[in-house]
Every structure is written in structure tokens, then in C-alpha cells.
Write the C-alpha cells for this entry.
Amino acid sequence: MRPMVLMVGHGSRDAPANDEFRELVGRYQARRPELEVRHGYVELAEPALADALAAIPSGCQEVTLLPVFLFAAGHVKRDIPRALADIGRRRPEVRFAAAGAIGVHRAMAELAVERAAEVADLSAAAAARTAVIVVGRGASDADANGDFCKLTRLIGETKPFSWVIPSFMGVTRPRFEETLEFVACSRPERILVIPYLLFAGRLLNQLRDQVAAFGARQATIEMALAPQLGVHERLLTVLDERLAVVYSPRVRSTGD
């Protein structure tokens, strides 16, 4: 039987977000036909991670969990290792491993800017008059928030923007709305909002409403909201890199 890769998503109450994730899984299976690619969610959608692990067929000898999470916070640091420990006790004949989160990667910064270019002129002249707010989900994990700020800096290195500032939708600060008010005080010609979110869903809908409301109050400042990162070749390439770390001979020999 082919080695199995179980792609792990967060899960959403919004069907379009789960549809995007399943599209990503399908694209990855087509990209890696030598693997058996399946998926599961840590919450809010089915199949749940525990159920996906329980459904591993007999005869399978190798399963690698591939977290589709932008940064390593609670789900990657606690929930996935806990699930692996549990299934490992019940299926000792299977070799289990987990890849790392997507993390800070220049290709992901480039993807964010590429998405922004779909809605805004990013020539050097236009970028120079543009203040950029990069918006993340926000986490209770300080390392994850720090990695997001580092990723924001990488975005800032791609173009000569006037400002590039990180903000968050929840959990931690600075929150997006207060960052937006702060940036507006400098009277930029344009504010470009880049949601550093993988898929559509409630956070993106909330962000869209906040941008629209602010634009209605500040008619003198041009506003632009980029789409989510979504399914893209750059993302697939980064996932390949994360999986390659697990599959490298050095890591395998250490694990054995």
C-alpha cells in the first residue's frame, strides 16, 4: 500500500472554507500520485482527526500528518501530537510521523503579495503611496504571533510600500480596527489590507465588512482588500517542503 499523508485542517462552520480545503487536498493528491492523500479536521468539520486516523486501513505501514496551518500554535503543538500518541498506542504496527506547520516562508509572503496584486496596482510608484496592513487570525501562542510579525516583514521586503504593519482579528493585539484607525491618521493615499488567512470564512467576511465600513467613513483614502491566500502552486510547494523533512533519510534513521 502507498504511504499515506493525512492533511490536517482546522475546520470551519462555513462550507466554502471546507470546500477550499478539500480542493487543496485534491490538488495535492494529483501532485503526489505516489501517496495516498486523505484529510481530517481538528474541529468544526468532518471527518474529525480522530475519525480519520481510526479509518486508516489495515496493511498501511506509514502515515504522515501534514498540518495545513500557517503557524504552529495550540493545534499543531498539542492536539496533533496528542492524536498521534493515541493512535500510535492502538496501531503499533504503523509508523506515524507529523510534518511541521507552514511557518515563515518567503514563498508565502510572495503569495500574499501576488493575491494583493489582483486588486491593486503594486508598481513601485503605487507601492510608495500605499500603507499595508497585514491581518492574521491571532493566537494565544506568543511564538505563532511572533512568526506572523516576521512574515509581515517579509511581505514588506517584496515592494517599496510606505508602511507594512501587522494586526490581528482576535485573541491578541493590535486588533485590525485599531490599526486601521492608527494608519489612517498618517493620511496615506491608499490603504491595502492583506488578509493572511488560508481560506474564506467568517473572519474574512468580518474583515470585508470592517473595510467597507471604514471606507464609507474615510472617502479621501483609497481602500483595497486582497483575497485570502487560497489554493495555489506556491502553497503546494511549501507543503512539499514540509513533507520532505519527514521523508529525509536522516530524519527516518533518527526516528528508527
Q: What stands out?
A: The radius of gyration is 20 Å. DSSP finds ten helices and eight strands in the chain.
